[in-house]
Amino acid sequence: MRFMMLIIPKGYETAKPGIVPDAKAVAAMMKYNESLQKAGVLLAVDGLHPPSVGARVSFPGGKAKVTDGPFAEVKEVIGGYWMIQVKSREEAIEWASRCPGSENEVIEIRQVQEMSDFPADVREAAAGFAEMQQKAGR
Amino acid sequence: MTASETHRAINAVWRIESPRLIAGLARMVRDVGLAEELAQDALVVALEQWPETGVPNNPGAWLMATAKNRAIDQLRRRKRLEQKHEEIGHEMETQQSTSTPDIEAAIDDDVGDDLLRLVFTSCHPVLSTEARVALTLRLLGGLTTEEIARAFLVSEPTIAQRIVRAKRTLADEKVPFEVPRGAELAARLSSVLEVIYLIFNEGYSATSGDDWMRPALCEDALRLGRILAGLAPNEPEVHGLVALMEIQASRSAARTKPNDEPILLLDQNRARWDRLLIGRGLAALERAEKLGGAGGPYALQAAIAACHARALTAPDTDWSRIAVLYYALMQRAPSPVVELNRAVAVGMAFGPAAALEIVDALTSEGSLAGYHLLPTVRGDLLFKLGRLDEAKKDFERAASMTRNAREQTLLLERAAACKKSGAN
To answer: Is the minimum CB–CB distance between A127 and chain B shorter than 8 Å?
Structure first.
């Protein structure tokens, strides 16, 4: 099973564009990432630029509306993520606990949905949808 | 944390730490079986204490320290191998004082890695293939005997006995706890890769009705492969195998209908292929090729899988490259099944007539006599050449050879289609 570990650094919601992370913290994080890789559990890892250079697309009345960052009303934002493949939710938690996080950081663990998580009718619908997409593409 | 939550947390710690723990202990006591017992003993202590005290900050180091203490106690208590024990006990006490840097150093040391030694020992050719698989999953995958039994659809006592016997064999044969060197390395490495790929294929052949432990074997094998790639980064075939497994695994959501009916590669919805795994597979293949391993059997199979992965639609497939890769695979690891696959690729790239020559050579050679895919492929080629009466016979022959009812129906339908077209 796959889990996404989302890191939420407090204060990142107002961080300036081009913010540079602390070299020491980066070195510790690299070591942590290496341990995930050596254990064969790491599928992907990325850090994200702050929301001040991001944008949000919302859909009021079903129409796309773009808002440039930073977003005044948002209290928590994602600073990066890991995608890991492990045996259980507890293993994901154990890996997250080993992260050299700082006082202002939180890691949220979310399991990635797989087709097999859904009941048969949803799977059928998804298969039908996929077929439809394929036909439309041809 | 409730007691059951703590137990689950301990299981997670075990999954993560047990391979390193067993490997480190095996180096000290020079016996994989004893090392595992000591590690298990430490686990029992953790299960007793952690629900009270909570999980320690560095659970791996805690388990290692506990196991070492048990080892020293046990060795002191047993008198008959006094001399040897004193030696080892002394060695361990010395190691203990500098334990953490030692372990770190060992892991960074590319030849002297305990985990790598454990991999080679678990996959030692003195053991049967079944025993290698069970021992590898147990010692390196961190799976319980019960989980292995469920995954392989055999009883738990069978697996338990297989593991006990394997450990005894390793001890009786005095298999050294080491990484093979020189000429031996290549053969021993191929035994390791074979075990990992076998685990992967066992998982890949599972169906949705099976216990979830079975398909999970694919993930276990991938994890082992990725670990091995980190331990032996200069071995191109390790990256070749990882590439092959990543790319094959990328198709798992697309390869069956909801009712478990298989979907052929060319008919799969490529939007459902996992791009993350494809990307990882292509990167691993590149590493294998950069290390000069493009011609290795796993790298070649991965390169063939990569041709499919790179094609955004089935008609985009680079069949002439696939035909070349199958030719290279035939030179390296000849087998009639590979040759049949080459024929299919040649047929797609250069037309059915060229492919038919290869298939006819295979037919007269005779080693695939009982294999229904031979007349299936031949029937398809004849059909494309407009030789419908002959195609019909081949499809019917193939239908009579397969035991899969669904496949039989499909083949009989193709045979019937020959008749219809023939009447036109």
So the answer is: yes
